[in-house]
Amino acid sequence: MSAVMRTTLATLLSHYRPHPGQLLMLLLGLWVASALWSGVQAINASARESYARAEALFSSDLDHVERRDDAPLTLDDYLALRRAGVPVSPVIEGELELADGESLTLIGIEPLTLPGGTPLARQDADAASLRDWLLPPHRARVAPDSLDLARSDARLPPLEVDSGLPPATLVTDIAVAARLLDKGHRLTRLMIAPNRRVDLPSAFVRTSPAAPASPGQLADSFHLNLTAMGLLALVVGLFIVHAALGLALEQRMGLLRTLRALGVPGRTLVLALGLELLLIGTLGALLGIVSGVILARLLLPDVAATLDALYDATVSGSLTLPWHYWVGGFAITLGGLVTAGASLLWRASRVSVLALGQVQAWRARLQRQLRVQALVGGLLLGVAALLWWQLGSQPGQRELALGFTLVALLLLGTALWLPPLLGGALHLLTHRLPGRAVLSQWAVADLQLQLPRLSLAMMALLLALSANLGVGSMVGGFRLTFLDWLDQRLLADLYVRPPADQAGELHEWLRQRPEVDTLLPTRQAETRLIDERGEASPVTLFGIAPEPILRRHWPLLDTLDGREAAWAALTREAAFVNEQLARRHGLEPGDVLRLKASRGVVTMQIAAVYPDYGNPRGEIVLPVSRLAARFDAPPGTLGVVLAPTQAREQALDRLRGALAQRFTLLGDAAMIDQQALKRTATEVFERTFAITRALNALTLGVAGLALLTTLLAQAETRRAQLAPLWALGVSRGRLVGLQLVQLVGAALGTALLAIPLGLLLAGVLVAVINVAAFGWRLPLHLFPGQMLLTLVLAALVAALAALLPAWRLWRIPPRQLLQEFAAE
Amino acid sequence: MLRLSGITKTYPTPQGPLRVLDSVDLELAAGESLALMGESGSGKSTLLHLAAGLDLPDSGSVELDGQRLSALSEPARASLRRHRLGLVFQQFHLVPSLSVRDNLTLQARLAGRDDRAWTDHLLARLGLDGLDDRYPEQLSGGQQQRLAIGRALAPRPQLLLADEPTGNLDEAVADQVLALLQTLIDESGCALLVVTHSTRVAAPMGRRLRLARGRLLEPGR
């Protein structure tokens, strides 16, 4: 490094010696921006790593052998194929319920016949380990992050750690799996190497495996949502960085000109400023990434629970971070810093060495900048309006990425408009104030002068407040709709899940009980929906009993000829489809479904579309009787509606006791009352949005920090502006009060813009983002309480941010205020 | 060593172009001291900026030791300023975050010519010894201007350019600073060009010229 560069850099950095707060705020901005972003990315990276492990395990390119008649495979089929010289290998798969309510995916393999090179086979197996595997007590392989969970079950064989397995998955010998899953002679799959060309007996058919068990588009949407929240936090954090950098540059304008006069070339000066950014950025990124990992560790259990509950996606509860996470975290923080600092570097490169101390010129430039901002903001809002119109005119074509683009355009466009709008409002206020309100007039005029410096922090506050209101309204509306929907769907007082062999007997027994009013049996089966092009996609069939209570309450979104006609059609040959399935396949009442049944393809007309919040899958509702007859669906949960009574709880307890005595109902899940089910569903809901709320609150905190940074950094300049007022007889206490009123006023003005923006945001979330991400559309609810809260939050954030600078001003000795005159 | 030939400089203003310097010719020999006098707005600061290579003339040439400044690139002009010129401003322009010693050696370090013995000598001659760990805000106005003069002399320049060097000081302190400047210039053997409106500042200089409405006049005219 040359003497010029070394000395220039040291001189530039020396600025932070008398201004440690500025450096601290710069680092703080980088730290929070990077920490929230890195935290979210750590969660995403860990989840993706879990998905990758699952995909590697389940997406082997082995072919499957199935029965032509679609009947389940058995041990006899396996033996018949082997005898015919077909080198198939059997696999059993199922969910193993553990004692504490958790479950593991158990996969049983037969290692001697399993084709080599598949992820299921252990690559480093030797003769001794194979013997251990095959002979009692056998062995089971489990991922390191699920070892503790597996250890809690005494039924499992000795465990070996296999880091290649996905979380909550256990691989063991097929004999052990058959016993633990109580499968008898039934097999899940028969697999064969794709390059083995053999003739199959006529009863069998060779198929290529379906798409791998990836978590799917819905879980991807969840991660995209998290990324969007992280990005918002990053942007708001970078506002702090920009504000701190801007002030550091403004205060060093004189220094830059002096250095140029003393012989530092302009290019060297910009390079030194860039190097300073790099140094500070590296430190901030390091701090941020480390904190992000800590934040992710705290949030990951909730996220894993959400992904499991909402999307059936199993994610490890412990963090696994690939190398590109660290590099990516660094790159995004430094990239953000360069973005935040680019305009400042440009300004530094344009410093005129002759214009020593021309503050007026700088202000004029700022005014021009404001005009350009308003123009660009208007342009962005125009594009946003066009995009919304475009998305609205193409239902079903709502791309998630376009939805987020719309959100970004709305936020950025309005943020750019904020400073000119605030300026205009202050200008109007100046003319409205009575002539004798001297101090008020001064306060308004002074706030106008402060506005260029405050505008970035206010923009950050606007983004945070509107995101808070928008997401809050969406979640609040979702909550109302969801609870309402739960009430409509969970009509039985008790849900009983009997073993298959006792289902008929239990049904009869309950029918005889005097306290029982109605029984609501259900059945469930998986099949394939065949579309117009002949392509089949998996779909869940859900059987219900169309009893009057269900017909009264079951929510329907769309019908062909009204509710009554829809229910009447259902009892004949029609079906209901859930909103997700309807949107995904562009279905509506009146359309005809083609479904693969145990005996060929069956068709049925859609009578209605119903809401099905929280379900990631497409679902079709049929009467239980038809489901049992055509799709061989086994009996499922039985809903019991009690007869109206004053003593519901006692009646429920009596029935539970009698049921437990009469039937073998294993585990807590076999008998659940409605209240417990609602409680669990609500808990899942709350947990799902816990991370959203946490990130929202953190973003608001970051915006508060942006404001504090700005206020602290300009405290010195402010002192010089306030000292004359003090000299004219305004007490320090009064000055502090004026400062607080100015800031709270500006924050309230910002909040007034944040309210319509937040409502627009909620509209986009409900009408575009949710539909694209989850497949359902919620009604938009407006909460006046939340709007009021936005105003209160804005005032609170501004007051909190102003507290420290105000306290310092209040405590300032008069001697220091006098020095302002000496300096003048 | 410094030659300005046929210098013209015009600035745009809302009322139309304003000619600040009009066909100015000026020469300054090595070791010579020259005071350029004139009222506010006479163009003397512009002339100083052109001499320092901070700005370029519209026409005419500025040569330093035979090197035409307008032929040099911006980095080359900056290098020339760093190594061969010393600048003293009316507002001092010290770096508030650097100590007295670091301010004094700033340009010398930029030029790669930091000489501790010379710095100590300068500190002593400027009456700032013992204050080297202080910061500019802890110094009086006179001390700050002395420090600014020291900073300009620390890299041992060939030419010192001073813009109203005592304009911010009271008469007594200004006389002290001026005397010190003269002594140090004599000791170092560098040339001095001072622009000032004060006859007190101009009096001790070897030569005096007056600038009025952008044209160079003989003193007294």
From TrEMBL, chain A:
This is Putative ABC transport system permease protein. The keyword Ligase does not apply. Residues 229-352, 696-814 form the ABC3 transporter permease C-terminal domain. It is found in: Cell membrane. The chain crosses the membrane at residues 226-249, 269-300, 323-346, 372-391, 403-429, 456-478, 694-713, 754-776, 788-810. Keywords: Cell membrane, Membrane, Transmembrane, Transmembrane helix. One of its GO terms (cellular component) is plasma membrane. It holds the Pfam family FtsX. The lineage of its organism: Bacteria, Pseudomonadati, Pseudomonadota, Gammaproteobacteria, Oceanospirillales. Its main location: membrane. It is a multi-pass membrane protein. Residues 456-656 form the MacB-like periplasmic core domain.
From TrEMBL, chain B:
Residues 2-221 form the ABC transporter domain. InterPro entries: AAA+_ATPase, ABC_transporter-like_ATP-bd, ABC_transporter-like_CS, ABC_transpr_LolD-like, MacB-like_ATP-bd, P-loop_NTPase. It comes from the Bacteria. GO terms for molecular function: ATP binding; ATP hydrolysis activity; transmembrane transporter activity. Transmembrane segments: none annotated. Keywords: ATP-binding, Nucleotide-binding, Transport. One of its GO terms (cellular component) is plasma membrane. This is Putative ABC transport system ATP-binding protein.
